Amino acid sequence: MSLFRSSNLPYMLSVLVLTTALGTWPAALLAQERMFQMTEQQFNSWIFESNGFNSGQGQTGRQRVEVSLTARCQQLDATAHLDELQREKLRLAGQYDIQRFFNDVDAARRQTSMGQISQEELNRIYQSVQPLSQRFQMGLNGRGSLFEKTIRTTLTEEQLAIYEAQELERDRRRYESLVRGSIAMLELSMPLTQKQREKVISLMMEESPPTLTFGNSYYQLLIPIRHMSRIPDKKLRTVFNDVEMNVLKDLFRKTQVYDQILEQQGVFLVDE
Amino acid sequence: MEALHRTTSGKRISVGGVRVDRRILTRVASCLVAVLLFTSGASAQSFFQKILNDIGLGNGERPAGENARVLDAAEAEKKDAVAEEEVDPEFSNEFTGILTQVLNSELFYVYKVCTPNEAQLNSLRAAGKLEIARIAKEYGRLQAKNRNGNWAEWPNARERIGNVFVAILKEQLPEETVGNYQREMAARLDAQRAAARGMMMNVLDDRVYLSNEQAISLDQKLSEQWNDEWSRNLMVFSYPQYSPRPDASLLKDVLDEQQVKLLGDMRNYGRISFGWQTDLGLTGWQNLGINMNHALLDKWVQATEAESETDEAAQ
């Protein structure tokens, strides 16, 4: 065909080169102005899915908090022997906390633009749902909740003592798991003898454990390390030798930056 | 092609009875070709990548982040048949650095428990180096066979180094000292399991609020049916969607029906990888500066020897 005559070849080649260039350049431009589909499922996943709930299957984590509330009330009932009125008050208070949270989620959902949105808007929505995700992660009937306040005003002194002992035991158990995890991580580089291991664990469990709002956090294994950094050298030196102390000091210095992040996640460390 | 033919002058053609300048038509046709190419998705990158792949210079379907060259099945099979000593260092070099760190921490450990003298320590170090060279080759071959992720097949470097140390110590130190070292190694392994068990229980507790009695029973059940694969990498428990979970049958004995159902509904994406170093449980806080290097151990040995000389002099 005349179209492909040799005199046309340079022209055709230049068109090809231009085409290949155009093939990548507009793609880059398009990427900049890319639009995103914001859906209710996406919204739910940001709040609940990072906590292990499959929002795609209609789970929003409500079941989890309700089961958790029931289990807490049952445990309290089994040990502190609640009467019918106390049981009902606690159940209602717990339900109120849950409902209040889900009302806040609904309100946030209503304020969220669904459909095609820009990257900027997507980032804004993501940031705005983070506090909700954190609240969910920390538990809805925990410290500062109406459930917790109702416990303090509804239970008798004796029942309250039982409850507090129970919660203390739970906190202790959970924190000890973290301490053991953190020490095991440390031991991958700096192995300890059995005696050292048990001594440092009991030292950490005795010396003002941090106030924790439980819930999984990517930085949870650093909590005991930051806690350890606050224990006076004198005490740590009863467990570690000079070489180990130097290594630990280096670790403490390098992990200092995480204090602020942990505080934002509800972990409050106390200086000894 | 009645509608498209050249005119006698060769400068103009007729399209559907309309006379058009040949140059204009050529340009329109070129643009059509360009649009065709563009819409067919032939971006420059994939276009040239395909050419490179076809002539054997591209990286084909190599997984992102893969450091070593990936062999195809036939090559890998052939490679596997090659004697250990002949394995291309390309497949083992990347492991040596981390394995050396593991060796250093194990030397530190053996020194702490058994306090061998300098000559004994040197023989342990030499044997350890040989062992990690072997392990690196085995790792290299496993990687070449695309066995990344099947960590159960990968040798446990810490255990292997420990076993080599035990064999040497038996020849050089009293039985009691070697026994202490073995007990310490077993206790450390148990501590690792207990730590993982506790963290696994924290993940479950976050979901279903375990009572203290349930926690005690669950800990017992888990410890009876523990799978060592669960305790290789503790980092995974900070990511509940990926953390290992016990079988429902085990949970049924301890939790109530509602709790079991809720745990069953929990989303699990399966395995997450933090890189082979962490997945294999070889690294801990190294990225945060914890590295028991050669110099640290030497410093400790010198300090200990100086101390014992001072004690002897004082006596």
Give an overview in words:
The complex is a heterodimer of chains A (272) and B (315). Chain A has 272 residues and is an all-alpha fold. Helix content of chain A is 68%, strand content 3%. Chain A contains twelve helices and two strands. In chain A, helix 3 runs antiparallel to helix 4, helix 4 runs antiparallel to helix 5 and helix 7 crosses helix 9. The radius of gyration of chain A is 28 Å and the shape is flat. In chain A, 30% of the residues are buried. Chain B has 315 residues and is mainly alpha-helical. Helices cover 60% and strands 3% of the residues of chain B. Chain B has a three-stranded antiparallel β-sheet. In chain B, strand 2 and strand 3 form a beta hairpin. In chain B, helix 5 packs antiparallel against helix 6. The N terminus of chain B is likely disordered.
- Determine the structural class of chain B based on helices, strands and strand pairing: mainly alpha
Largest interface: A-B, 74 and 78 residues
Q: Residue ranges of chain A: pLDDT <50 for 5 or more in a row? A: none
Helices and strands of chain A, in N-to-C order? HEHHHEHHHHHHHH
Q: Can you summarize the main beta sheet of chain B?
A: 3 strands, antiparallel
Q: Which regions of chain B are unreliable across 5 or more consecutive residues at pLDDT < 50?
A: 1-10, 39-72, 78-87
Rg of chain A over CA atoms, rounded to whole Å, is 28 Å
Discrete helix count of chain A? 12
Which class of secondary structure composition applies to the elements of chain A?
Answer: mainly alpha
Quick summary of this structure?
Helices cover about 70% and strands about 5% of the residues of chain A. Chain A has about 270 residues and is mostly helical. Chain B has about 325 residues and is mainly alpha-helical.
Descriptors:
A: 272 residues; mainly alpha; two-stranded antiparallel sheet; 12 helices; B: 315 residues; three-stranded antiparallel sheet; 3% strand; disordered N terminus
Set down the secondary structure blueprint.
The complex is a heterodimer of chains A (272) and B (315).
Chain A: H1 9-32, E1 35-38, H2 40-48, H3 62-80, H4 84-110, E2 115-118, H5 119-138, H6 146-154, H7 157-187, H8 194-206, H9 222-228, H10 233-236, H11 242-255, H12 258-264
Chain B: E1 4-6, E2 12-15, E3 18-21, H1 22-39, H2 44-54, H3 73-81, H4 93-114, H5 118-144, H6 157-172, H7 175-208, H8 212-224, H9 248-252, H10 257-265, H11 276-279, H12 294-314
Antiparallel strand pairs in B: 1-2, 2-3
Helix pairs in contact in B: 4-5, 4-6, 5-6, 6-7, 7-8
